[in-house]
Write a structure and sequence with these properties.
heterodimer, A: two-stranded antiparallel sheet, 13 helices, globular, B: alpha/beta, Rossmann fold, five-stranded mixed β-sheet, 12 strands
Chain lengths: ~375, ~325
């Protein structure tokens, strides 16, 4: 017995890979895989990141001027959503958390709708282009279990589609995440889970969240393929997403990707990160940011210049202004709309309350 | 004996029959939960279903109620009609976030783009000498949440018809099965696929002198009390609410307006129980028809005691009889 204790056999052994293709200055660290040599794709990735950043800036301005509600910025994390959005196929299903504006834009959600959501109007979740995508999920990590359910339905029906769900680093502490990882491995679900590890759960840093060396390794507990990726490197992310989706399509089960980013913004517009984050940390965060890095890469490849940059910014401004205008011109739903989608058909017992509300608002209007 | 005629069934067998019927009819109907597969559920509600419909449609899940509820929500948004079993209602609390924050809201949040046609079944209620956490009645927690339907059958026939309706309903249904009466009696049930309505109470017995309002297992004691009253020449109307939410007050109000007296009986705690809502609505809409104050016979506002004392917690037929008599004698 003692012998065994002194010389235990190894039951299992694990390692976590880390993927980075571009350095902070946009120089390729490896020969890029062939699929990343597609110029159209490269430009598309860049344009989506810029659009996301400019829209993000506009959202904060709208909130600060009282034209929108609390908004969670994606500043510095644009590459994650953009890589996911462009890697997914339209008939895949996105189950996003609340910092996934970039992915939603690519999946066809209109700017107006994104603004409506954060502007307090449920109609923003009624996106016509990705009819099966779930709306942004506010309760932390719960969306991963829904994604597992959707992936179960897809597997049950033998469809060649996948589900992608996202969460932040703090969300990996919740049971919903662990329970979903466990099921995804057990049922070999066509599911890709992407952690946007932006180092902060509101004010709590990654180091206080968990003692685990990586968040990716949480996949190992459920026999889910897992890896770490530089989350400010849109190319490494895109490639990781493609590998994960291909595995899902081919029935080879789930993948967990930990994208390492840095939140360059406050948690939301209701937060003040100067209370808990040092200016130095923020400065270091900016050194890794994805857009400058990728622009340098495109410059190195002679795919980009100042003229293109200028015209892209103008295009984005135009698109955003149009969306903002549509949003601001969208009248609020009538008050009684709060009754209209509780059930497929409004139960008899609620008709009276609905009518009371109509009468009350009519009286108020007549005063 | 015709082909459709089955031996008389218990309530748990009727639950099984309804699920099997709907699974044969609609391949989108699937079952998931703990021990629902080979074991057929700890109460045998899913007995034989895995053998008939296979692993793909009768899924043993990992032991995680949060996951079960969340996965059910996800499946439902894909147009499946999942029936999830929560092994006991006492374990449903880990699933509450998904029930309240997601299942109940998906349709509303997406303005009808997505919905959750799902059933969450859970055995509930006391009286079977079960361990702690296995005997509570917390239907009011669900009734307080808009977007859900809350249904409690009180007989094998109603279990069959109401569960069929719940599975076919386009919105999430919390289907609470009073386990004390799972096997207490049998009824002949024709497996004809006929669903019962989810928006009306059932008048089990018509009467003129007093209205007794109850649901679930307490219907048993309520009917016993009504029989006793009949022996003294008092005719009690007995209403089985069955659909706790949305609540059909029309049936209740017209009965109370007729009898002028009523007793509400439920096993759940009195404080903020569904009986409180029914009382309030009667007071709001039929106060002047009342000839006596409304009485409630309920569980105490305590924690359900361990089972040596659980019978003291549960309302008895005699409690109901006493309350009814007081109500009848009020001048």
């Amino acid at each position: 017995m003692n012998n065994t204790d002194r010389n235990p056999k190894l039951s299992a052994q694990f390692e976590i890979s880390y993927h980075q293709y571009l350095d902070n200055d946009g120089k390729a660290l490896i020969d890029l895989p062939a699929q990343l040599e597609d110029e159209t794709l490269l430009i598309k990735l860049y344009k989506s990141m810029v659009l996301t950043r400019l829209l993000d800036k506009k959202c904060i301005a709208l909130q600060r001027t009282g034209k929108m509600g609390t908004y969670p910025s994606t500043l510095g994390q644009e590459a994650v959503g953009v890589a996911i959005g462009h890697a997914m196929k339209q008939n895949d299903v996105l189950v996003p958390y609340y910092r996934d504006m970039a992915t939603q834009l690519i999946r066809g959600v209109e700017i107006k709708d994104i603004l409506l959501c954060w502007g307090g109007d449920e109609r923003g979740n009624d996106s016509p282009l990705s009819p099966q995508d779930l709306p942004s999920c506010v309760p932390i990590a719960t969306q991963i279990t829904h994604a597992a359910g959707i992936a179960s339905a897809i597997k049950l029906r033998h469809e060649e589609r996948a589900v992608v769900s996202t969460l932040g680093d703090g969300a990996t502490s919740r049971g919903d995440f662990s329970e979903s990882i466990n099921l995804a491995g057990t049922w070999q679900l066509p599911l890709v889970i992407v952690i946007n590890n932006n180092q902060w759960a509101i004010s709590v840093p990654r180091s206080v969240q968990t003692a685990a060396q990586t968040l990716a390794q949480k996949g190992i507990s459920g026999e889910v393929r897992c890896e770490q990726v530089d989350g400010c490197d849109v190319l490494a992310l895109y490639d990781a997403m493609q590998r994960a989706l291909d595995n899902a399509y081919q029935g080879k089960g789930p993948t967990l990707i930990e994208a390492i980013t840095y939140r360059l913004s406050d948690h939301t517009t209701a937060d003040d990160a100067t209370r808990y984050r040092s200016p130095d940390a923020l400065k270091q965060g900016w050194e890794k940011e994805p857009i400058k890095r990728f622009r340098n890469f495109l410059h190195h490849r002679n795919l980009w210049d100042e003229g293109k940059e200028k015209s892209l910014y103008e295009q984005c401004e135009e698109t955003i202004n149009k969306g903002v205008e549509e949003y601001l011109n969208t009248e609020a739903q009538p008050p009684e709309a709060m009754f209209d989608h509780l059930y497929e058909e409004l139960p008899h017992s609620l008709h009276e309350q609905r009518q009371q509300l109509i009468n009350k608002t009519r009286e108020a209007g007549n005063e | 004996m015709s082909n459709n005629t089955l031996p008389d069934l218990t309530m748990v067998e009727a639950v099984n029959l309804a699920m099997a019927h709907e699974m044969r009819k609609d391949e989108n109907v699937v079952i998931l939960g703990e021990d629902v597969g080979t074991n057929g559920g700890v109460f045998r509600a899913t007995d034989g279903l895995k053998a008939e419909f296979g692993l793909r449609r009768v899924m043993d899940t990992p032991l995680a109620e949060t996951l079960i509820a969340g996965v059910t929500v996800g499946m439902a948004t894909q147009g499946l009609r999942p029936i999830a079993e929560i092994q006991f209602m006492g374990f449903i609390f880990a699933a509450m976030e998904h029930i309240i924050c997601h299942a109940a809201r998906m349709r509303n949040r997406t303005r009808g783009r997505l919905s959750c046609p799902m059933v969450l079944r859970a055995p509930y209620g006391g009286g079977i000498h079960a361990p702690e956490h296995h005997s509570e009645s917390t239907e009011a927690l669900f009734a307080h949440t808009a977007g859900l339907r809350v249904v409690v059958p009180s007989s094998p026939k109603r279990a069959y018809g109401l569960l069929l309706a719940a599975i076919r309903d386009p919105d999430p249904v919390i289907f609470l099965e009073p386990k004390r009466i799972y096997r207490i009696s049998k009824q002949a049930i024709e497996d004809n696929g006929e669903a019962l309505p989810l928006d009306v109470c059932f008048t089990l017995r018509e009467g003129e002198d007093i209205t007794l309002i109850s649901w679930g297992a307490m219907i048993l004691e309520t009917l016993q009390a009504a029989n006793k009253l009949a022996e003294s020449g008092i005719s009690a109307e007995v209403i089985d609410v069955a659909t706790i939410s949305p609540l059909d007050m029309d049936t209740i109000l017209s009965s109370v307006k007729k009898t002028g007296r009523c007793v509400i009986i439920h096993e759940a705690a009195k404080n903020c129980g569904v009986g409180a809502e029914i009382s309030a609505q009667i007071a709001e809409r039929a106060l002047l028809s009342l000839q006596a104050p409304i009485k409630r016979v309920c569980g105490y506002d305590t924690i359900m005691p361990y089972f040596r004392n659980e019978s003291y917690y549960m309302p008895s037929a005699n409690d109901i009889l006493l309350a009814a008599t007081e109500t009848l004698n009020y001048e």
